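Could you join me in thinking about how sequence relates to backbone shape in a protein? We need material for that, and I hope you will provide a protein of your own picking. Label the sequence line and the structure token line clearly, so we can match residues to local backbone shapes. Would you write everything just below, so we can both look at the same thing?
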Amino acid sequence: MLFEAARESVNEMFAWLSWCHPNYTVEESRSFVVSSETAWNQKSGFGFAVFDANSDLFFGGVGLNSLNTKNNFANLGYWVRSSQTGRGIATAATLLAAKFGFEDLGLSRIEILTAIENVASRRVAEKAGAKKEGILRSRILLHNRPLDAIMYSLIAADMNI
């Protein structure tokens, strides 16, 4: 599932997600699943697979990572396979993951960091109600190139939690 979705999406996602590269392998998919399970067990990351409730088609993933326990916040990331984009799936998954972060993990803040040029990711953050906080210069290193990024945030009050 993960392998097929990633391979389908290389042309669109590789520019923004270096793990989704043209030579992506089944073994990399397996390794990701194992590392995600380990992170969950260690409470250092909480990844979710996103499926169609009616057909069990794998849509993509969403997760909370880079947990900062001292300051009580985490990063939220998302991706949706190319054939299913533009349907609100990433936004819905983002809202569910954020709700989990606030209600189940007790987070105070959730951050979404995206490259300025990644218009689709910015649109998801904005549709999820995240507030744009500013531009961080050379914040993301992608394909050995520093990129400016936009920081968005959600707090529980943004979601009436």
Q: What stands out?
A: The radius of gyration is 15 Å. The first strand starts at residue 46 and ends at 51.
